[in-house]
Amino acid sequence: MGKSRASKLQLLTVREVQTAGVGDLADGGGLLLRVRAGSASWVLRYTAPSGRRREMGLGVARRVSSAETGESLRLARKLAAEGREHVAGGRDPIEERQHARSMAKAAAAAKKVSVARQQLTLARAARAYHERVVEPRLTAKHGTQWISSLENHVPQDVWHRPIAEISAPELLTALSKVRSLEERDAQVPETLRRLRQRLDAVFEDAIFHGYCSTNPAAAIRRKMREMLPTDRPGQFRALDYREAPSLMHKLRQAEGVSARCLEFAILVAARTSEALTAEWSEMNLVQATWLVPATKMKGGEEHVVFLSKHACELLAKQIGLDSEYVFPSTMNAGRPMSNMALLAALDRLQVRAKTTVHGLCRATFSTWAHETEAARPEVIEACLAHKEVDKVKAAYNRAEFTAARQTLLARWAEYLEERSSVSVVSPIRA
What angle separates helix 364-371 from helix 402-417, to the nearest 10 degrees? Predict the structure, then answer.
């Protein structure tokens, strides 16, 4: 006796597939034509290695034309044969299919990430991070300064490189090109410190989102310090205060917004960033005060600067240049000047080798005040907005030092009016 119909294969004809009514029709070997109202499909019924009875869909059964039906039947038999081979090999076809789909999905995702990595430059990553994280947290002005510092200082060949391709040595070389843009603080130049910190945040964000695997900005932190000129920790190059009056005389003969900004910063012993971003909304020429907001202060607390007569006269001459910034950029309308502008002013005065901007504006003032005993040490520190560790004492200082601070800055301005009998700087070149 021959094999039963159920054990045979390829039982259906093309005509039978085309004319089949609602229900299941066997083709043999577990392959079924399943017809439902308005649809027809192929199904493989089998027993998995686990002993579980399962059904796996093999696709739509095409029945419009004989040629189409014949091709559909051929493909269904091919897929059914592959499924039976999996079962014979101790594998579940459905699980195999799911695994294959997962692998394909992972490969597609990996390819997508690879393409994204190639397309995501440092510039795009920084701007995306700025838009998503920085802008919502900072004021519009400070948010603009955040991204502008990167756009203006990171060399273009690195700025527009895929972020995943930038190495630590390459980034260090790029930042070494701007090492002279700003005076030094206790460890690193202020500009470089800010650039590295901001790039650090950008790279960390890119790592989190899978766009790169390393953070070169973090890796170069120590190397960046090593490449800087060595000074004693915590010290700035600063001009001898006895040379300051002569230098100020030269500075007042110089033209330009950068010269006026440097002159103002010297008069009020301001930090570079505070002077560069000074706004008219912070100034009160009637009360002769400048209220520096906490967001601009290194210590995170607002600071009142008492303006001398000379400082007020200088500010009066700046009125009308810009509606927002006291010392606006002449290159980028509506923005403050960059740190480079003040260093260029030092270059024109030919004292760049002797002092940094920070050293000239603050250390020179501090040395003069301490050595001439122009005021008590705590008053000098209050003028410099150095934070007092003792909170009780700090509160007392803020309450008691108003008149003393006014007097000290007025005396400093008067001292700077003096003319040195010995020329210590060369004439300014045109």
Answer: 100
Residue with tokens 């990553």: 125
Q: For residues 87 and 105, give the distance between their C-alpha atoms in angstroms, rounded to a whole number.
A: 24
From the first residue on, what is the mean pLDDT of each consecutive set of 10 residues in the chain (430 residues)?
58 92 92 92 93 92 92 94 92 90 83 67 93 88 87 90 92 78 45 86 92 91 71 63 93 93 95 93 95 86 92 95 91 82 90 89 92 88 72 49 90 83 33
Report which of 94, 98, 97, 99 is spatially closest to residue 48, judged by C-alpha positions: 94
Would 258 be classed as within a structural domain?
Answer: yes
Residue 81 dihedral angles phi and psi, to the nearest 5°: -65, -40
Report the alpha-carbon distance of residue 268 to residue 306 in Å, rounded.
Answer: 8
Residue 232 within a domain: no
Domain CATH code at residue 87: 3.30.160.390
Within 10 angstroms of residue 48's Cβ, the number of other Cβ atoms is 17
Q: Please tell me whether residues 263 and 349 are part of one structural domain.
A: yes
DSSP state of 155: -
Count of helices and strands (H, E) across the chain: 21, 7
By the 8 A CB rule, do 148 and 194 touch? no
Q: Give the whole-angstrom CA distance, residue 247 versus residue 257.
A: 17
Rounded CA gap, 188 and 179, in Å?
A: 9
Cα–Cα distance, 404 to 380 (Å, whole number): 9
Contact 359, 183 (CB under 8 A): yes
Q: Is there a contact between 59 and 41 (Cβ–Cβ < 8 Å)?
A: yes
Contact 73, 14 (CB under 8 A): yes
Write out the residue range of the structural domain in which residue 344 sits. Answer: 241-417
Specify the pLDDT at position 215: 95
- Whether residue 278 is contained in a domain is answered as yes
- Report residue 3 CA to chain centroid gap: 74
The answer to whether residue 235 sits within a structural domain is: no
Same domain for 391 and 275? Answer: yes
Last residue of a domain, one of 102, 136, 161: 102
If asked whether residues 51 and 185 sit together in one domain, one would say no
